[in-house]
């Protein structure tokens, strides 16, 4: 993926997040924003997955 393609996808993600924030405003549960953002990303034609487990390693510590 080229830098311009990455910039385009990043712009679509930021725009989707802005639309959700603009429509819903602050103060709701994170889950509400998560579901709505996933919906906006799908409408934009972007594949997405929610709440994936990502292993984290930090200075010898490991988190699931």
Give a quick set of tags describing it.
64 residues, mainly alpha, two-stranded antiparallel ribbon, extended
Radius of gyration: 15 Å
Major beta sheet, specifics? 2 strands, antiparallel
- In which order are the strands of the major sheet placed? 1-2
- Gap between N and C termini: 29 Å
The count of strands amounts to 2
The parts where pLDDT drops under 50 for at least 5 residues are none
Q: Helix/strand/pairing class, anyone?
A: mainly alpha
N-to-C order of helices and strands: HHEE
What percentage of residues falls in helices of 4 or more residues? Answer: 55-70%
Question: Any idea what the shape is?
Answer: extended
Task: Classify the beta-strand content into a percent band.
Answer: 5-15%
Count of separate DSSP helical elements: 2
Oligomer: single chain
Provide the residue-averaged pLDDT: 96
């Amino acid at each position: 993926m080229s830098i311009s393609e990455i910039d385009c996808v990043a712009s679509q993600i930021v725009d989707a997040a802005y639309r959700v924030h603009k429509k819903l405003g602050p103060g709701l549960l994170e889950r509400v924003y998560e579901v709505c953002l996933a919906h906006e990303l799908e409408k934009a034609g972007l594949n997405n997955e929610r709440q994936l487990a990502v292993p984290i390693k930090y200075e010898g510590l490991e988190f699931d």
